[in-house]
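Re: Re: ligand-bound prediction request (bumping)

Still looking for help on this. To restate: I need the protein modeled with iron/sulfur cluster bound, output as structure tokens. Inputs repeated here so nobody has to scroll up.
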Amino acid sequence: MMESMTGKVTPRPSSDPGPSPPWRVPTAVYVHIPFCRHHCHYCDFAIATGKNHLKDRYLDAVEAEFTRLGESRPVETWFWGGGTPSELSPEQILRLCQIMRRWVPLNPGGEFSLEVNPDDCDPARLAAMAEGGVTRVSIGVQSFHNATLEFLERRHDPTQVASAVALARQSGIANISLDLIFGSPGQSLELWKRDLQSALEFQPNHFSTYGLTYEKGTPLWKRMTKGDFLPLADDQELSRYELAIDLLEQAGFEHYEVSNFAKPGRRCKHNEVYWANHAYFGAGMGAARYVNGKREVNTRDLDAYLRKSLAGEETAFQSESLSPLEEAKETLGLNLRRQAGARRAEFLQRTGLHLEEIVGSKAEPLVEKGLLIQDMQGVRLTRQGRYLFDWVIGRLF
Ligand code: SF4
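Reply:
Sorry for the wait, this slipped through. Here it is.
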């Protein structure tokens, strides 16, 4: 580790693919759709409520951002997240697809993912998504338990999940991911098990499961600090995470990333770009992008975003270019989210640094504790290490 702290950079290997490797030139595009009907009290995403009248202007602003690319840049994946992309009308969905086809067309066989809320999934919207080329929907189920949904302030009814899944399939979108949240106060292990079992009945080919977090400043965090409720203890949360891994692996899902599970061949290719620390475009309020080694994040203020983008001004409020050492550390942190971890050859090619230069002696105690594996292939987390991801990353850096 000391050696890595010097910032010494090993020359790139001769296998360097040349001037346009995927960590410099984006192969993925993220578009943020901030509109939500209600601000769920645990959420700290970049969102806007009560602003439906601005949706068309918002698409104008996103188009203006893409126009600044200056030329068409073909990519492999599109991902619309939010906020709530399914809040767009069928016409707006098709318009945004058209804008993106002009500036960032998807290569044949590309992946197009879109996040939807179950109660937005009507036939017209799903038909527009299918017509626009959506190949994959990520449905925000969160729970099948009414009281849990109420606590989370999610507005849908659990029975709407069935119709969302059926409509997506009828529309020809066969690639279905379900999002679940575990660890709400009072959620028993048995209730969480029932959530997982109910979700499995829909036979999706992908799951994202997240532990409820209390982000500072959110209404939920304020309620917790006032003592309105008692959050689950760490070991209770871990037992729910462990149960998810057990049940989903038994059902044939590969736990390919800390929070994600996929049937063979059904990983989210877009998110794999992030975990490889490769480049991506991002457009929309609060969207991040990583192009040619520069990280930028757009303003989270809707009015400022609209004003600046439509005036042809810079929409980013944060911008930084990482040093080779910082980039290598970030690559390791992201790679470790993957089941495959950081692979030696890939890491060297990506960063110009040997894995040992970054990991150094800090790995040894983690290997001894059974949290990390370090071998010929590279460095990866054990199952126990994945439970303690944040802690392990804290020790490594
Ligand atoms: S619907 Fe999703 S993005 Fe919108 S406020 Fe709720 S959790 Fe946040």
